[in-house]
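Q: A reviewer asked whether we had any structural model of the full assembly, not just the individual parts. We don't, so I'm hoping you can provide one. Inputs are below.
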Amino acid sequence: MASGVKPRVKTPKKATAGEAFTIKTLISHKMESGQRKDKKTGELIPRSIINRFTCEFNGTSVIDISIEPAVSTNPYFQFDAVVQEAGDMVFTWYDDDGSVYDTTKSVAIG
Amino acid sequence: MEFSRRETIALGLGAAALTFMPFRVDAAAEEVIAAFTGGADIGEGGVTVTAPEIAENGNTVPIGVDAPGAAAIMVVATGNPTPNVATFNFGELAGAQSASTRIRLAGTQDVVAIARMADGSFIQASAAVKVTIGGCGG
Amino acid sequence: MGMYLLKTTAFAAGLALVAGSAAVAGEDSTLTINGDLTISTAAAAPSHLENIDEVVSGWLFRTDETQSLQMDDFDNPSFVFVDIGIDLWEAVDGTEGKSCSSCHTDGPEEFAGLTATMPRVDADGNLETLTEIINRERVEKMGAEPWKYSKTKMASLTALIGLQSRGMPVNVAIDGAAAPYWERGKELYYTRVGQLDIACSGCHEDNYGVMIRADHLSQGQTNGFPTYRLKNAKMNTTHARFKGCMKNIRATPYAEGGDEFKALELYVASRGNGLTVETPSVRN
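A: Here is a predicted structure for the entire assembly that you could use as a starting point for your response.
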């Protein structure tokens, strides 16, 4: 597991059924592109990125993003969701090294 | 085959362009796009890509894509050594077929968004981003 | 807005200098964070400044896109490091089995206002920086190793502590016991160094608002430090920034945490007296 990886998510605590709302996500990650060289040894630094991010609500997909090294350090995504009932929004980040980071936010209807 | 003087000059320019322009990179971008579309025709309109005209730092360039009714949108940085950036696959609960992120651009180039619509057709749009060679950043 | 506004603001400031009247920053110079914290990014220059009428935040010199990153704490990537700072605040380290929070039970909020007055002279008459205070506490109270001057841990904790002063006016003391350090810093600010033979003033006083290659020179204010830079995607301390400036003009940088940079930190901070603390800011 890469060190110091911290997911951050901003969702409204309450949503109106059928009305879109904005979600912002950010995870602290170096996003090592695999194209940089170690200044001391001259060797390529191996790629190590978050390669996929998903957001699901009560098991149904909101968005599923495949990510390449061209996404900046501390990858940030903003997108919209729409829900009909209360439930859990699950955010999952997949690391090249096999680690999976996730966080869950409850969304109420009101 | 004989070349007129004008044709020869044109050829020379072409050769110069091949030498100095990132032709290989453009071909790579085309390959990436073809892999997404399966070689299908790509239309215009119905998709927008938002990016700054001038990016202060190519390391972190905010971009947004929007294509109402799209199933997926792929973002390609045509001037990057590896042109793929990200593909947004919109689920059933997407509130809009739009998303924003921050990307790395190796230099001044076009950022292209290709949307795969629900009916399997493709549309694209692009935004030219000038990446400045910075001063001191302060 | 953004750097386009700046052309106008800086140009107006330039005209104002010629005209000998105070430059007036437009309403566009207001930075609003999270929709409710209003920060004025321009102020009348402190009286000790002889050649500038108005001091302006580096935020004004940035593009709309970079500016907007600082207008919402979620969009601001510095908060990744503020979060790291919160973890460090709670982390037990050293032989005494203590964390910051063991003694400072009211949380980092206890230090509201501190960063606005740093660096300052301690009871023994020595100029001290926030970084030095943290390391002294780590060694003396926690029995822990001091942190490197500008690395992630120190920059993250100083960002967390600096955040407690966000919105407050910069107000470093330059008189009394601070005076000799301030004079030393001023001397350094105006001394040409390096192969390019440039003093701090050559860029940040004489030419702010002017393009340097494709970039705008700012006044080099430190009211947003430590700052997240798009260039290296991490928190940057004042001393690391000074070092970068010196390398840019092909000078041999002074040591981070050394007497020269400490004096310079005081003097540069005092040039922003009256500006508002923006820590943790976003720059390019």
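A: Points you may want to mention in the reply: Chain A is about 0% helix and 50% strand. Chain A has one domain: 6-109.
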